[in-house]
Amino acid sequence: TQMRDQLEGTLFAQLMRETANSETGTVDEELRSVPPPTPLAWYPERLAWQFNYSRAQLRRLPVLQGIFDFIKNANELGSISRQEAVSMIPPFFLDAQPHHRILDMCASPGSKTFQILERMHGEMLEGASKMPTGFVVANDVDLKRCNLLTHQTKRANSPTLLVTNHEAQNFPVIRSPTGEKFEFDAILCDVPCTGDATMRKAPDIWNRWTPGNGNGLHPLQLKIALRGAQLLKVGGRLVYSTCSLNPIENEAVVAALLKETDGALELLDVSAELPDLKRSPGLCEWQVWDKFGYHPTLDGPEQKYKLCETMFSSDETKNMPLERCLRLLPHHQDTGGFFVAVFQKTKDIDVEEEPVRPPKERLKVELTV
């Protein structure tokens, strides 16, 4: 609340004073063309603010340099977190609570993990002294990215964070000495994707994009989502998201996940959550393309093109409630693009566990001189 008041008061007032009191000239005209910081209309309680300043403006205008220094210092101290607006949406749908055990399966670079930690410590920020009883497991497959993840999240100074380095699709099942399976209350699967929805901030993607880019990632994305469903407790939430608009990476994975879990997952209608968020419904039909062209079915020679059955839409997918998925398009709210699907687990799923390997026998070696 104090940080929000400072954003509303200090920064906004400073920018307006400089605009009104500066002498007539080039700087005055530039300041008048600079929009003030504004809260995101769709995010609750005005806890998210947006700044639309270019690097040239930050270097040239002294008042903006002061604002930038404030944001940079507050970010290093963990008071605020800089994050792309659209990437704040998947963690919100986790509905993280202080007592939850949460798994972020593909966590690096850590902005979503930091947001989850903020939600879990929300009661303390409001004046309560009680420490959260839950915790967050932030996992990534790349060791270097785990180092980045640790660097980004240590600003939270939270004792409820554990960073792990493991393949998300093979994340181990944790059992107690008595054999009881450890399950998570909420799991975020922000899976590796082609990133074709980030074309606004990364326009070079257009030069590298092909229709079949997402085909190679589809099996991995499905495996990660399925593993997340296996590790989730009954009644818990699973959020699947990508920064891609390709239905092969999105609706095709959701449909395959619903089919393979055999009714253990329910695709939730979250239209009442974040009601001011503009969104498009998910697709119920799509086509499969690659560098060889359009593939209407998997029958025949298409199998040699590394396609799989779960990529294709069918009469069964048309009857699934895939319209409950969220497609966030760049022109909706001046953001990047994103895809989000929210599930709730309704019954147990059989879990495939890695076989326990026997310990290696120790060899005694006698050294003679």
Describe, in plain words, how this protein is organized in 3D.
This protein is an alpha/beta fold and 369 residues long. Helices cover 31% and strands 16% of the residues. The protein has 13 helices and 13 strands. The strands form three sheets. Strands 3, 4, 5, 6, 7, 8, 9, 12 and 13 form a nine-stranded mixed sheet that branches. Strands 1-2 form a two-stranded antiparallel ribbon. Residues 19-25 have low confidence and may be disordered.
Label this structure with key terms.
369 residues, alpha/beta, 9-stranded mixed beta sheet, two-stranded antiparallel ribbon, 31% helix
Number of discrete helical segments: 13
Oligomer: single chain
Distance between the termini: 73 Å
Relative helix content: 25-40%
Q: Let me know the number of strands.
A: 13
> Main sheet?
9 strands, mixed
Please, what is the average pLDDT?
A: 84
- Element-by-element helix/strand order: HHEEHHHEHHEHEEHHEHEEEEHEHE
- Globally, the shape reads globular
Low-confidence stretches: 19-25
**What is the gyration radius calculated from CA atoms?**
24 Å
Content-based structural category:
alpha/beta
Brief summary:
This protein is of the alpha/beta class and 369 residues long. Helices cover 31% and strands 16% of the residues. The chain has helices spanning 2-21, 26-32, 55-60, 62-77, 89-92, 111-120, 122-125, 143-153, 205-208, 218-231, 251-260, 315-318, 330-333, and strands spanning 38-39, 49-50, 101-104, 135-140, 161-165, 184-190, 232-242, 265-267, 280-281, 288-290, 293-295, 326-328, 338-345.
